[in-house]
Amino acid sequence: MAEGLVLASFLEAAVRLGVPLALAGLGETLSERAGVINIGLEGSIIAGALGGALGALATGSAAAGVVYGAAAGLLVAAVFALFVVVLNTDQIITGTAVTLGGLGFTAVVYQARFGVTGTALTLPTLEAWALPGLVDLPWIGPAFFGQAPTAYFAYLLAPLLWWFLFRTEWGLEVRAAGEDPDAAAAAGVRVRTLRFVTTIVAGALAGVAGAHLALAHTGTFSEGMSAGKGFIAIAVVVLGRWNPLGVLLAALLFGAASALQFALQTLGLDIGYQLFLAFPYVLTLAALAGWVGRARAPAALALPWPRGEH
Amino acid sequence: MTARWLPAASALLALALTLALAAVALALGGYPPIEAFGALVRGALGSPSAILSITLVRTVPLLLTGLAVALAFRAGVWNIGAEGQFYAGAVAAVWMGLQVGGWPVWIAVPSVLLAASVAGAAWAAIPALMKLRLGVGEVITTLLLNFVAIDLSAWLVHGPLQEPRGVFPQSESIAEVAQLPLLIPGTRLHVGFALALVLAVVLAFVMRSTRAGFFVRAVGASPDAARVAGRVRVARVVGAAFLVSGALAGLAGGVEVAGVTYALYEDLSPGHGYTAIAVALLAGLHPIGVVGTAFLFGVLEGGASSMQRIAGVPAAWVNGIQALVILSVLVVDRVVRHGWVAGGRDG
User: Fold this and answer.
1) Which of A111, A238, A292 sits opposite B314 (nearest CB)?
2) Peptide bond preceding A306: is omega within 30 degrees of 0, i.e. cis?
3) Which residues from B are below 8 Å from A92, CB to CB?
4) How many domains does chain A have?
5) Most CB atoms within 10 A, among A218, B172, B272, B308?
6) Residue B184 at interface with chain A, using a CB cutoff of 8 Å
7) Which CATH number characterizes residue B101's domain?
8) pLDDT digit string (tens) for A118-152?
């Protein structure tokens, strides 16, 4: 019985922790398909978390907080897109700067608003929606169908994005921009516009992921609470082979890896929680090492375009 | 042919842009920019003891990690992992520093610093091997390893390396013979500062005047051209640059432990390895330039607490400045190469 409860709460935590990785990873899939790798995703996530927290606080509504979070994530990504798409700067360096700036300035705003020590901030939280019927399924019911609305958004987004990328004209253009921008441009595709738009859409999704961290997990904001999820999300895109359905699956697996620490602690296995904290990162590294050779990135990923201007 | 003064002029321009943006950001936040900058500069440079015991001491880890990043980026290696390599070096330095009690200083100190460098290189060897053997890009791997290193050090100071009483989350202090001698008695400035300066000069010489330095620059400029035209063994150069970069960042961690903290703590680094990226880029990846930009960031960090005390500006603000510096460098670089300076593009 006790084990059963542990397993149920483990599965629930796995999905809850996997959702922000899925949302950020799906957005990143879209922009990487267009040729843009955004190391600044972490910056969008933390901005989304703070935006979500402040928005929820101001309006008293967690749902409105999610909208604020999306806007914050989008704004941060717009700065990134302005540099890499319009000014054609290096994507890695720009993304690193955007992540540092996101972490730094969210800490400033937080400290300015709530003090250095951080008064315990209690926010309205996203209430779980139990889907009638489905939530009663054994094991997976409560785990998948008793979640915050952001989770259902992720479930729907994955097939929708798959359909967009592989079954629509625009999706074809996005993929062309990421594979061979010269040929795409010659065929009339507006490569820069596509790259800009997909990048800021990805930023908005990362913002929702951040808002989920603040409003569905904890009901609070803390400095640096994104804790590398943006980087893991980028790895998740690789593991999902740039396919939205694969990315959703990989994100849930990594959510499970993060949830493992809580389950093992509940079972009384105490080998130092810091080691469990390191586990998702180690697992990501191991997965990249074992997997990457079998996945092919979009050919023009991370390359500035037009080339001559770099 | 780029004019010799261009890198320095670009850096100054980027700096001016950063200051302007920072002033705007401060004003938007409701803080008077002049007063805030004044408090920062007075806090960092207002007295000899502020300069020697605060600002220059803060400069040392930034200088060493800045050199680490500059070398890697020069070779086209995106080592964003100086932070993790710093922690690896700090852990090794503490471990070695606890073994050397009773040894002569002239063996104990080099042993500690060597252990730190080796540990930093070993930590960098993981992403280097993943890149060269498995084709996994180093950006994400080095970033992820930072989190692993930080979590592992946190575990160590709560577990195997915790001080004997088991009360505080920190290690025991390293042996006295392992602690770096002071450079100027009566201050906190240790010989690590001199060591870092010497290494900057050595690295500048190696990059400019040796075969190895030429290879690094050639590979960084274009791996394919270096392979075809120069018969350079690219993988070897990339691997070596990665390891030396890791060793420098590890040394930074070792010097911080042996010269400042004498023990391992959680959150030992306030993000030196990330600041190092701004330090290196603002310096145009030039080792001598890194001395100047590391000092500049030493001023920023050294003065941050007094800015917080006097002008009420959160100290975390300094972290945001790093981002503004990098973005400013990118803008200036773009303008210099494509616009306002005729013939500025160095083909």
Assistant:
1) A111
2) yes
3) 78, 139
4) 1
5) B272
6) no
7) 1.10.3470
8) 566 778 888 888 878 787 787 777 778 878 889 99
